[in-house]
Design goal:
Blueprint: H1 9-25, H2 28-34, H3 40-65, H4 81-92, H5 104-119, H6 122-136, H7 139-151, H8 169-185, H9 189-223
Bound molecules: protoporphyrin IX containing FE.
The site of protoporphyrin IX containing FE (HEM) has 19 residues, from helix 1, helix 2, helix 6, helix 7 and helix 9.
């Protein structure tokens, strides 16, 4: 097995999980959204899943924000829950909370994050944090542009992808990678491997969420 200490840890994480990234990116439900053939309802269903993911993730991330050693990962401008709530209200209406539910994979994903948070496994929290937020700051920015154009959304409905509070996304991503490098240097080899495994697990959950969303959509179409 390749040693994780030979390169900057941010590079190890990216390279060691890029095949999982490709699986997530290539999931049909996601691909349809990127190709502009997903419906407005598909997008709404995705935003609803984000709500349940970030509810767990941002609760866990309080542990990162509370410690100077990891606070750089979670500045105030990264927080997504208020934007998600505003997007859901704009897309669904005031009663959005009663009208959304997690698909099974989202429930499992949130449960895994809560389990790690309860253990206080900081590297595990960082693994989940990295997988979601760096994605939102990367491919997520492309998704937002596609969805906005296709469904005629302006700020309302896509606030989740607006990270203006962080400054330029590229600068923040570079700072985030530097924080990953510094954090990785504090871990031993087995812990770095364990964290990489958790990133791969996080991608697996995201892919499973797309699969479940696809199944739910097919079931709804069959019932109509
Ligand atoms: C259609 C869907 C997607 C597209 C087109 C896409 C595209 C991209 C691109 C182009 C990058 C590289 C950006 C850069 O290096 O600055 C990237 C990075 C990333 N994406 Fe995605 N992505 C998609 C879905 C996802 C999903 C579902 C996740 C996980 C939830 C994800 C997580 C990440 C992460 C963590 C990175 C940062 C990797 C690193 O540099 O360490 N992406 N994505």
């Amino acid at each position: 097995m390749e040693e994780t200490g030979e390169k900057p840890f941010s590079v190890t994480l990216r390279e060691g999980s890029w095949s999982d990234h490709s699986d997530s990116e290539g999931a049909t439900f996601m691909e349809d959204i990127m190709r502009g053939i997903g419906s407005r309802q598909d997008y709404i269903d995705l935003v609803a899943q984000h709500y349940f993911m970030y509810e767990a993730l941002e609760e866990a991330a309080m542990q990162l924000a509370a410690d100077p050693a990891t606070a750089a990962f979670h500045p105030a401008g990264i927080v997504r829950m208020p934007a998600l709530e505003a997007d859901l209200a704009a897309l669904i209406g005031a009663d959005w909370r009663e009208r959304i539910a997690p698909v099974p994979a989202t429930a499992d994903y949130a449960a895994r994050i809560r389990e790690i948070a309860a253990e206080g496994w900081i590297a595990g929290i960082v693994a989940h944090h990295y997988t979601r937020y760096l994605g939102d700051l990367s491919g997520g920015q492309m998704i937002a542009k596609r969805v906005a154009r296709q469904h005629g959304l302006s700020a309302e409905g896509i606030a989740f992808y607006d990270f203006a509070g962080l400054g330029a996304p590229t600068d923040f991503k570079n700072a985030y990678r530097a924080a990953l490098d510094a954090f990785g240097a504090t871990l031993d080899e087995s812990e770095r491997q364990r964290m990489l495994d958790e990133v791969r697990t996080a991608y697996g959950f995201n892919t499973a969420v797309f699969v479940d969303l696809g199944k739910a959509k097919a079931a709804k179409a069959a019932a109509a």
